TrEMBL record:
Domain of life where this protein originates: Bacteria
Protein known as: Methyltransferase domain-containing protein
Keywords: Coiled coil, DNA-binding, Methyltransferase, Transferase
Molecular function as annotated in GO: DNA binding; DNA-binding transcription factor activity; S-adenosylmethionine-dependent methyltransferase activity
Amino acid sequence: MDQYYTTGEFARMAHVTIRTIRYYDKKGLLKPSFINESGYRMYSDEDFLKLQKILSLKYLGFSLNEIGNMTIHDTSADILKSLKMQIGLVHKKMENLEQMEKALQNTTQILEETNQIDWTGILNLIHLTDMEKMLVEQYKNGENLNIRISLHEQYSQNKKGWFPWLLEQMDFDGARRILEIGCGNGQLWKKAEPSVLKGKYICLSDLSDGMIRDAAENLGEEKAFCFDFRTLDCQKLPFPDAEYDRIIANHVLFYVQNLSRGLQEISRVLSDDGVFYCSTYGKGHMKEITDLVQEFDPQINLSEVALYTIFGLDHGEKQLKPYFGSVEKRIYEDSLWVDRPEPLLDYILSCHGNQNEYLYPRQREFKEFLEKKIQKHGGIAITKEAGVFICRK
């Protein structure tokens, strides 16, 4: 039989104040399991798990608004995933604190021995102090990417899967040096056959240090040794001309600030007989999700800019032609059929638009909105329009 506690009992057992519990209730972070006939707010054992997660994330540097988006549908089934996430964050924070301790000791020692301030050391301390915020931001970016990948992996009707399909479009015969731009968490190579990797130098690059770390961790020790991980900007590649036989940019080019400059650099470092593979979306990609949120609240935009307008399937060939002799387009045939609200809600909250501002105070209402849609139709059909351009010099 489930055990329930009043607000006072719950607060005492958790060693927090009643005011804290009431504040989290008011903010929508930790609602009681139910309110009894006497009007008492009652909390369950499962609510202790939700409180632990809130306090842990708060300690690790997340704002209450961000925490709200990460605790909307916590159940006992989420415990393992939640705890692993917190362990990862704690490890990163520990690494940062160890670096800071070492820098403090070095700076102190120099001052004691020379009576002079080590301004380089002070600047390093400032950088390390600011690193904690950067770690949280990088983690959020990595988690958001994982959420978006997970929705496709769980609900795609094409059982081949995007990453295996994309690898099949790539011809690595005779390729010795391969560069991936914007590798994210390295998922493209997660299930790559050993024969694809054997005898090749593969550089995985990204603009984000955090993504590079995630890629190394995601690929694991068994595969990580096959790759060279580098933080770099494709608008200024630190490589000589014709350095790579194959270059890959998977759903990346629409994020490049100066696309012309980026394509010029990619073309420069591609060998004369090399191939450039760049994937992107069409204007109909995931349009039903946009329709859903705007039906719920027309003020919501899931992206500040429609990415396909920057570099998309419809006009990408025209943008690539000035830099490559031939451009071929291949389409990935797929769609989603989603029969649970939680993955959709996660996906929507992971987007780059203003959805958090409008959905945060109405999360449970929006989840109920999704549940009604799913109950009515048995699920939600979502269009996918994705493909890859194969470019040769």
